Amino acid sequence: MLAMDYRGPRRVRAAQKPMPEIKHPQDAIVRVTRACICGSDLHLYNGNVPDTRVGTTFGHEFTGIVEEVGPEVTKVKVGDHVLVPFNVACGECHFCKQGMFGNCHESNTQASAVGGIFGYSHTAGGYNGGQAEYARVPYANVGPTVIPAGMDPDDAVLLTDVVPTGYQAAEMAGIQPGDTVVVFGAGPIGIMAARCAWLFGAGRVIVIDQVDYRLEFARNYAKCEAYNFNEMADPVVFIKKTTDFMGADVCIDAVGAEASGNAMQTITGRKLLLQAGSATAIHWAVNSVKKGGVVSIVGVYGPTDNLVPIGNVLNKGLTIRANQTSVKRLLPRLIEHVQNGIINPKALITHRIPLEEVADGYRIFSDKLDSCIKTVLISPSAKI
């Protein structure tokens, strides 16, 4: 089958690989119909995530038709069109039973650090992802969810990560009616977090980034204010001035390890890899939020250390909330929001690229070419 193949930092290709096989009675094999390139895939692509092995297939956002199931699979059947949450979750462990599917204790041998994630290095279980014609889906009674009749596959594929992660960013922030919410990052997750902040009662939503076309997209899609930090002397001072020097009620880091804007962080986090990515967005969030405020982190960082202003967290009495998204927990509500037209996920998709051209897809998304917001890969076997 054809699949994305990682060859080293900034080198990917489409290559022929063996077909996935049932390895456990609860496995399913799906024929992939949609697979996205995620902003967090760029951390892998750029070589910032430890133990990302040559030959891995990325892709933790995908939908597919069930082609084969193991003997213990009862919740989905051959022929079902399913969306597959990016978490690999057993559904039975201490954490899954609390709805913390992103923290599953059984799906990753390094589970004390993170639960299993499709296509996200051996630090997240070593599972191949869905940027392929076919994918093996473990714990098929837990994650795969049948796409409701009439739902556009382009909407469905964004329910595997982008929509739930943006929503959980706003949920974790504990937004109160009238709050000022600042979102750092105008990628798909940041844009969705800004959109979802209104659902929790935000009174003002501000997005900060440096890419003008994405800021314009955020203004239109999320109906928010959006500003370019390169046009400010200091984004923290800007936030303070625009909030009567109180600070924002809530700040959301939707950037993670790839953040720009601070030379020291860029050199130590992105060039020399002395820390687990650039922590610029965390610094700005901690220093922009008001005393007693909340910082919500959904931007992805590596498992090693980061330089963060923990003294300011203490002295300001901040609450920091962060987690991998528990997609399955949020799906019922978010499917309803999509069906009722409250959220329009597919509007984020700007590029549909054949899987055979996956290298171009990564280059366009990574280098922010052609006004790219979200890229979807279409495999030659998709047939939908």
Commentary on this structure:
The chain has 11 helices and 17 strands. The protein is an alpha/beta fold and 384 residues long. Strands 3, 4, 5, 8, 9, 16 and 17 form a 7-stranded mixed beta sheet that branches. Strands 12-11-10-13-14-15 form a 6-stranded parallel beta sheet, sandwiched between helices. The chain has a two-stranded antiparallel ribbon with strand order 1-2. It is globular and about 60 Å long. The model has no long low-confidence stretch (mean pLDDT 96).
Provide keyphrases for this structure.
17 strands, 384 residues, six-stranded parallel beta sheet, alpha/beta
Short description:
By secondary structure, the protein is of the alpha/beta class. It contains eleven helices and 17 strands.
Structural class: alpha/beta
Largest sheet: 7 strands, mixed
**Helix proportion range:** 25-40%
**How would you state the average pLDDT, rounded?**
96
Order of helices and strands: EEEHEEEEEEHHEHEHEHEHHEHEHEHE
Radius of gyration: 20 Å
Strand content: 15-25%
Q: How many individual β-strands?
A: 17
| Number of continuous helical runs | 11
Oligomeric state of the chains present here: single chain
Instruction: List the uncertain runs.
Output: none
Give the distance, in angstroms, between the N- and C-terminal Cα atoms: 18 Å
- Tell the overall outline: globular
